[in-house]
Fold this sequence. Notes:
This protein is α/β, with parallel strands linked by helices. Helices cover 31% and strands 18% of the residues.
Amino acid sequence: MQKIDDYNIILVNLDGLRQDRVDVCKNLKEISENGIYFPNMISVAPYTLAAHHSIITGLYPSEHGIDAYHNMFKFKNEVTTIPEVLKNNGFFTACNISSKSLMTEKGFEKFQIFDEYQIDYKSEHKKLLSELSNKKKFFLFLHYDKLHTHLVNDVLKKYNETNEDKYFNNVDKNKNRFDSHLEECDLVVKELLNSLKELKLDKKTILIFTSDHGTSCGEKIGEKSYGTFLYDYTLKVFCIIYIPNEDGKIVKNLCDSLDIFPTIMELANLSDKKYCEKLSGKNLLTITENPNNKDRIVFSETGGLNGPWPSPKKHNVFAVRSNNKKLIYNDTPETWEFYNLTDDPMEQINIYDEKSNEIQELKTKLFVFMKENNIDTKLSNYYA
Length: 384
């Protein structure tokens, strides 16, 4: 890839958009065909609070401090953020988000909070871009959260809380209701592209589209939305990098949301700086140059507000996965799950076998991850 100088960078989180719905969004699909599309990105934590802070820091939740719903104000100020680095290297940095709790302000020179029920994304984004157009170069984080709003209002509230079985018995109907709002999401993408073109920013702006987590539509009993379990309908997200005048390609290698930080550093020509050395994530542009590297392991964690074993004060569900296998540990009931994702992509058949060498290898990797990140579980004696 050619070196890029003085390009703007816009990172867009389409909150709650499942990877398997990207092709339903006409404009987003077109961008994926013209950009570098990573359809196998895994969220390190399938809820916005933790996921946003992991994306913006390149760190696991236990490293940046937001490792539970009730730890929303425990972000570690010593942690380096993407906007902080870019600001120190000539970028003007701005953020447009629905809640102050969902993103640290560290490094952002302009930090706007919008009302998710009142916002007109077209005018809001165009006004913000117009203000930024006179900057030499800028980094902008945009948050689209209407899918989340619609999930609550048009899907979950359709069911009486005393009759949860009805929700879990209507997966297809729930998906159709969810899909009915994708056109609105896709229109925001189109309007953003139009605004960039009108302001003559389209030829010098790199666009990165991703999702912080997917969304349950009732596939697994006990999880109505996201953040409770670690199954692929909430874990499997995506990343699309659109670089003007670069050819599009699809990269099917396994990657995770921590990769966005080092990738932005590369796009900003800052990949040789010392803060990249300690990051767990990989530069996605390097992954494109090594398409045969299929041995990667990624980790995810969560602790739900609801569900069969809610844990809002600390994470209690952990997963380690390879390209086609996933091992899950549920700390509260102390149970294990193992899935062959090639044979069982919907994760319906738990084939956990304590005697399996393959499972023991993944379990060892998970224990190392827990130890390195000082994660406290009922199995701490195994890796302390």
